Amino acid sequence: MQKEIRLFSPATVANVACGFDVLGFCLDTIGDEMVIRTTEAKGIKITKIEGYDLPYEAEKNVAGVSALAMYNALEPDCGFEIEIYKNIKPGSGIGSSSASAAGSVYGMNLLLGSPLDFTALTNFAMKGEALASQCEHADNLAPAIFGGFTLVKSAKPLKILELPTPDDLYATLIHPQIEIKTSESRALLPKEIPLDHAITQWANVGSLVHALHTSDYALIKEALHDVVIEPHRKQLIPHFDAVKTAVLEAGALGCAISGSGPSIFALSKGESTAKAVENAMRNVYANTAIDFETYVSKINTEGIKKIN
Ligand SMILES: Nc1ncnc2c1ncn2[C@@H]1O[C@H](COP(=O)(O)OP(=O)(O)O)[C@@H](O)[C@H]1O
Ligand SMILES: N[C@@H](CCOP(=O)(O)O)C(=O)O
After folding, report:
1. Is 301 a residue of the active site?
2. Is the ipTM, as predicted for this complex, more than 0.90?
3. With b meaning 16 or more CB within 10 Å and e meaning fewer, what string describes 199-213?
């Protein structure tokens, strides 16, 4: 008998300022929907894509690549159809590719009776993510699958640490409607970094992890800085410095590039500050010719979930 499942697959913020390729958190209000269905015919088929123009061939769509990796490893006695209802614009910096790569394997696993744990699912989803970014990074996939804040302790072998989410922490995002491909934004980065920058950055990562554990908002504020990646990428994002200045004046704890951009995120203590930060972001872009969307979101501690 055919079985199907409908999922909400959330957007995510990777890097979280200081944690390039290791830190990420999951958003609440922004995400794709996906339907995964078992079929008698073997194999993986993408049968519907709405929202954005993306390839239907499983080998060219991140959802198909991760699904095929899992399918070939498990060799189940059914096939799967995938429908993607895309709300997250590809090339957004809020984990558009990750939502699809994670959603297909998460749904297949549920339909198969959950034989795999979240780390194994993330491992298969990384194969899909690699199609988009030319690199098997898990800093969007881990928060999409586990929920909350996550730290990728190592990618090979994959080890993910779940971090606590302070109750009153809110994210605000602005997404300028331009596309920055993760693969291109990664190509800009230096292969080596000065030791003093590395020292600052790993002190900030350690401090941010400690601050999340202790709900220390003052320390979150001190730790949300990126001296390694932001100087190289910020020129891709129009008005980045103006947004950062405006949101810090509006009371945000910190502000940085979301993933590889162009989205910019800020973290704030309390919803009213997060909304004031949204206004500050909007005011900067309102006087420009660039279209944009803004979002205020609680941190989503659940991750991908079954709906209906
Ligand atoms: N299901 C999918 N969802 C999003 N992007 C996809 C998908 N399948 C393939 N892609 C390709 O991946 C690229 C977008 O991924 P990426 O550059 O990492 O953006 P994002 O930061 O939004 O994840 C685009 O080239 C897009 O065509
Ligand atoms: N660590 C990666 C994260 C990319 O995130 P995305 O949302 O832009 O795909 C990077 O910074 O390259």
Report:
1. no
2. yes
3. eebeebbebbbebbe
